[in-house]
Design brief:
Chain lengths: ~475, ~525
């Protein structure tokens, strides 16, 4: 039913990618039959369009500039299944280390992409706020969902975003009416289970629509449970109307074998503020795609990210921020701390349209290499078609400053303690921007309680990093 | 580039065009004789218009009968070129190997430039001025040629002693005259055309040709390997400091002739050389493909400085015509403490696609890249460098200044890679863009890949325009807006200009002023 365009490739790895693509296409035919589009008939059409786009692009190989630094073959060659049957039981205690809010604030929990009511709480409902699992919203409130769903996600050249549209079963629908302010953060938790017979893939979709002047904070937490392979392919859409403020925090706490792909699509009208901060901890391959369009004057878009990597972990942050209106401000701050054989990649692109005069764009990527075998790739890019702009980008890659270490050692700190303090200071520039106190403390705790290979090499002193904290 | 079928018609067309051009040229020369900053109080819009209409100052055309191959590319053509140049068998084999490989390649699409598809079968791959008997003095040289040189300012006659520059003028793919050979020969320096080198120094050419840019390197370099017609060869023996600056003037002349230059410079242990390259081209309305390859090899303690001023025909205000400049330039800093430095001032061509690179293999070797790229009207430039750090304590510096005006699109694309073994590698990159006018674009695509923790890399970039307060400040002190713009742009480019050899620096500054005439943002 779906055309499979021929692509002239010879490499065996590429053949594997084509086979993997075809597997997805077959899977889709089965999926469409079971998927009840509910009261939203247009969804079925969007899904078909998305899978056709995916059929065209397929899984990217590394000749694709957007995927130069991330090899998706390990993901593509895994035969993932869609979760079926009952939602596995997850002990609430298992989630405790990743939760920060109390039960007064709303929390939606999903297991392998499906809503788990037993783990969720509604919290105190604020007037003018609609917070529903997406599947339910599509079923019961189709007319409310339609103006927001898929409105800012452009999957033309984003194969995983296309897969998300084709396959998402559930997710979150959050709608804020005009002028509504939600005080406590809305907590969204996604659990990926692993260790079953077949590895599972989930494609949760989060849709956030903020009407004029609305203000909200949303946290997105991804947790891997059990050892083994899993794939989470999440897509988050944020649409901010005139004057709205949306603060978005995403943290991933993943076991070694987990794959995590995320797409954040943002569309902002005038005088809006959309801030997003992503903290990546663990996982084998993590890829975060960002696409923000500032379509109204005086908007602010701030994207931040921090990855602290060890082992063979791999994090790739890929950004595109478009200034499509005058006088907007964009900030991209991404940092990574790399140990062992870990790898980080950063591609940031600020695209300034001709109309976007008085643009103020800033982009910084800093990478701290703590091991001889770590690797950091950085592409801070600017594409500018307007002349009255202020755009800067900077990239720094190196190791810790020897003088700084010497300074601390001269004051009686061990080398490890000194390193730890400096790494904390380096990471602090991102962590400190998290405005939700409980989340910030949790992130600090998780980041620095992780076993660090710097300590592992020195018996008897393996707690040094924690002590120094 | 596609209207080759009427080849018979080309001649008459050339004639008419030629006379037209001459008239235009005389008009131009009157314009030229005026001081560049005559129009002090001209209103901004007028100067802008004037500038956009300003024609290419070096658009003259020399009428010399060319001994050209029929257009098209095939093994026969390659055999024809090779036979014409009386090349040995191995050279032909190498060309054919490249050609066969080229057939399997696809034209790259990743670059940020746009042009109609090139019809490679419509290009004439070989054209040489009619062979003349060996000449004893300049008097015997075709006066038409000499006049062209004069217009270009090539110091072939009495200026040659004053300028103290040895000139190997590549005129339409074949070297016509070479000077200062004796002085160089005394020092043991070999400086000759590539075809001569293939005949006279086959062992050196065979050893180094393709050792930096292999025949299979990329689409355009492979094409060049198959069909290159000439270029320069420089060999500096051990311990020799080249007694003078070497320069070659390239000039594209016959209609529809792609120029495929091949330059190879080898500096043995402790040797040093400074090489200058400058280009202008006649006015024409068909796109011309230029796919040159430059290879540099530096041994222990050797140093090579390669400077370029590129001012080929950029096309008219609608972007018609103009040179496609797809160049592969790469230097191999093979020896310890070797030093390779690229300096370029790119103001011409419809499309510039070049990334002069340094492969830093020897420990403590140094690579440098200084660039000014200016795009005006509908010019497009995608240029930058690659610094690959392989040896220990290797250092590289990148300073790139991009200026966009009119509807020009200027892209910096650069790679800094630090390999695992490159302990203590150091890079500093600065790429600044300046926009003049609101219809141009400035883009920056750096790639930074680090596999060694002791490496220290810094990348900085800014984008700006000439501030109104800056202009106001200058106006207040009696400078015209145009002078102020020139001054600010020259200041913007200063870091690059000071890397140029003296006489080039003056020329570059003048060139920029001419190119920027009337460009008041």
């Amino acid at each position: 039913m779906i055309n499979k365009p021929e692509r002239p490739h010879t490499v065996s790895d590429t053949n594997e990618l084509i086979l993997a693509r075809d597997r997805q296409l077959e899977d889709f035919s089965g999926f469409l039959d079971v998927d009840g589009a509910g009261g939203l008939p247009s969804l079925k059409a969007s899904r078909k369009a998305a899978i056709e786009r995916f059929a065209e692009i397929g899984f990217p190989d590394r000749r694709n500039e957007d995927w130069k630094y991330t090899n998706v073959a390990p993901i593509a060659r895994t035969a993932f299944a869609r979760p079926t049957g009952e939602i596995p039981y997850i002990d609430a205690a298992e989630l405790a280390p990743y939760r920060f809010g109390d039960d007064s604030s709303p929390r939606l929990v999903f297991v392998d992409g499906r809503y788990a009511p037993s783990l969720s709480t509604n919290g105190a409902t604020t007037k003018g706020v609609t917070l529903l699992p997406l599947a339910e919203a599509v079923r019961t409130r189709a007319a409310d969902v339609e103006p927001w769903l898929g409105q800012c996600l452009d999957d033309t050249n984003r194969p995983f975003a296309a897969l998300n549209t084709a396959f998402f079963e559930d997710g979150v629908f959050l709608h804020l009416e005009k002028g509504v302010r939600v005080e406590s953060p809305i907590e969204l938790v996604f659990i990926a289970t692993a260790g079953g017979d077949t590895p599972l893939a989930s494609h949760p979709r989060i849709v956030i629509g903020a009407e004029a002047g609305a203000v909200a904070t949303v946290t997105e937490t991804h947790v891997g449970v059990g050892e083994g392979v899993s794939l989470t392919n999440v897509a988050t859409e944020i649409m901010a109307r005139e004057g709205a403020h949306v603060f978005h925090y995403r943290t991933t706490h993943l076991p070694d074998e987990a794959f995590h792909i995320s797409t954040l699509a943002v569309r902002q009208e005038g005088k809006t503020d959309v801030t997003s901060c992503t903290i990546s901890i663990g996982g084998r391959i993590t890829r975060n795609d960002y696409h923000a369009i500032m379509a109204g004057e005086d908007g602010l878009c701030a994207l931040r990210g921090l990855a602290k990597l060890r082992g063979r972990e791999h994090v790739d942050n890929h950004l595109r921020v478009e200034h499509a209106a005058p006088a907007c401000e964009s900030r991209e701050y991404f940092k990574s701390v790399l140990e062992d054989e870990s790898r980080s990649a950063f591609t940031g692109r600020i695209f300034v349209h001709q109309i976007a005069q008085k643009t103020d764009g800033k982009q910084t990527n800093s990478n701290l290499l703590l091991s001889e075998n770590a690797q950091a790739d950085s592409r801070p890019q600017l594409e500018i078609f307007a002349d009255d702009v202020k755009c800067t980008h900077a990239a720094l890659t190196g190791q810790l400053d020897e003088d700084a270490i010497f300074y601390l050692r001269a004051r009686g700190l061990s080398e490890r303690e000194a390193t730890s303090i400096l790494v904390r200071a380096f990471a602090g520039e991102i962590i400190d921007t998290i405005k939700v106190d409980a989340l910030r403390e949790l992130v600090e705790e998780r980041l620095f309680s992780r076993e660090s290979s710097i300590d592992a090499g020195a018996p008897g002193k393996s707690g040094a990093l924690q002590e120094a904290v | 580039m596609n209207n080759i079928p009427h080849r018979t018609a080309t001649n008459s067309k050339t004639q008419t065009q030629n006379s037209e051009l001459r008239t235009q040229n005389s008009v131009l020369s009157t314009q030229n004789s005026e001081l560049p900053h005559m129009s002090r109080a001209t209103p901004e819009t007028d100067t802008l218009q004037q500038w956009e209409q300003s024609t290419y100052k070096y658009g003259f055309y020399t009428d010399i009968e060319a001994d050209a191959a029929p257009p098209g590319l095939s093994e026969e053509i390659i055999r024809f070129i090779s036979a014409k140049k009386e090349e040995p068998e191995w050279m032909l084999e190498w060309r054919l190997k490249a050609y066969r490989h080229w057939l399997t390649m696809e034209e790259p699409e990743w670059h940020n430039v746009h042009y109609p598809p090139i019809d490679y079968q419509s290009i004439i791959y070989y054209s040489a001025p009619k062979k003349k008997p060996q000449l004893d003095s300049l008097d015997e040289v075709d006066p038409e040629l000499l006049r062209t040189y004069e217009k270009l300012g090539i110091p072939l006659e009495e200026q040659k002693m004053l300028a103290g520059v040895a000139v190997d003028a590549v005129f339409d793919s074949v070297s016509v005259a070479t000077t200062f050979k004796e002085t160089l020969a005394e020092a043991g320096v070999i400086f000759c055309s590539m075809s001569e080198a293939v005949r006279e120094h086959p062992e050196l050419v065979r050893k180094y040709l393709g050792s930096v840019v292999p025949y299979s390197d990329n689409y355009f370099a492979t094409l060049n390997s198959a069909v290159f017609t000439d270029g320069s060869f420089v060999y500096i023996p051990k311990g020799v400091k080249c007694p003078m600056e070497l320069s070659t003037y390239f000039r594209i002349n016959a209609m529809n002739t792609g120029q495929f230059e091949r330059t190879l410079i080898v500096a043995e242990e402790g040797a040093s050389v400074s090489y200058l390259e400058g280009c202008t081209a006649p006015m024409r309305d068909e796109n011309q493909l230029h796919a040159a390859v430059v290879e540099l090899v530096a041994m222990d303690d050797a140093s090579i400085k390669y400077s370029t001023i590129q001012n080929w025909y950029p096309g008219d205000e609608n972007g018609v015509g103009g040179i496609y400049n797809f160049v592969t330039k790469r230097g191999k800093a093979l020896g310890k403490r070797s030093h390779i430095s690229w300096t370029q001032v790119e103001t011409g061509s419809a499309i510039t696609w070049k990334y002069p690179s340094c492969i830093l293999i020897g420990d403590d070797s140094v690579g440098e890249f200084y660039s000014v790229a200016l795009t005006n009207r509908r010019q497009q430039a995608d240029t930058g460098t690659k610094m690959v750090h392989i040896g220990k304590n290797t250092r590289s510096t990148i300073v790139s200044k991009g200026i966009s005006a009119g509807r020009g699109q200027n892209t910096y694309r650069g790679l800094v890679r630090v390999n695992k073994g490159a302990q203590g590698a150091r890079n500093f990159t600065q790429c600044d863009s300046m926009l003049i006018g609101d219809r141009c674009g400035a883009h920056t695509f750096p790639y930074i890949e680090v596999k060694n923790p002791t490496a220290k890399l810094e990348h900085e970039a800014t984008t700006s325009k000439i501030g109104e307060d800056q202009l106001f400040y200058c106006n207040q002190r009696g400078l015209s807006t145009e002078d102020a713009v020139n001054m600010i742009v020259n200041g913007f480019c200063k870091e690059v200009f000071r890397e140029l050899p003296m006489e080039f620096a003056v020329e570059a500054q003048k060139l920029l002023e001419v190119s920027l005439e009337g460009s008041v943002g």
